[in-house]
Amino acid sequence: MFVALIAHDKPGALAIRQENRPAHLDYLKSTDLVAQAGPLLDADGAMIGSLIILDVEDMAQAQAWADGDPYGKAGLFQSVTLTHWNRVIG
Questions:
Q1: Contact 33, 61 (CB under 8 A)
Q2: Are 39 and 47 in contact (CB under 8 A)?
């Protein structure tokens, strides 16, 4: 099943994002659960969150993956939602 992880950064947390980005990218690449991923951007093109599509067995596996993300561990996110997602195109 696909799960969309949508995370919004805490205001003023760009330094946390930049400091933890290499570890986050390594984490994304370290499992075969990430189908797609990329940052959410504001009107000026600055990173303000993350969208990650996970291909997992169940919601518990998605939550475990989210719990291991270096961004989350560093306290970057103001909010994180995990939502079952149905791919129609692509």
A1: yes
A2: yes
- Give the integer Cα–Cα distance in Å for 42 and 11: 12
Q: How do residues 48-63 score in pLDDT, each as one tens digit?
A: 999 999 999 999 999 9
Interval 9-46: pLDDT, tens: 999 999 999 999 999 999 999 999 999 999 999 999 99
Q: Which two tokens stand for residue 84?
A: 């079952």
CB distance 78 to 11 below 8 Å: yes
Using alpha carbons, select from 39, 50, 46 the residue that is nearest to residue 6: 50
pLDDT bin (cut points 50, 70, 90) of residue 90 is confident
Q: Which CATH number fits domain 2-85: 3.50.50.60, 3.30.70.20, 3.30.70.1060, 3.40.50.300?
A: 3.30.70.1060
> How does DSSP classify residue 10?
P
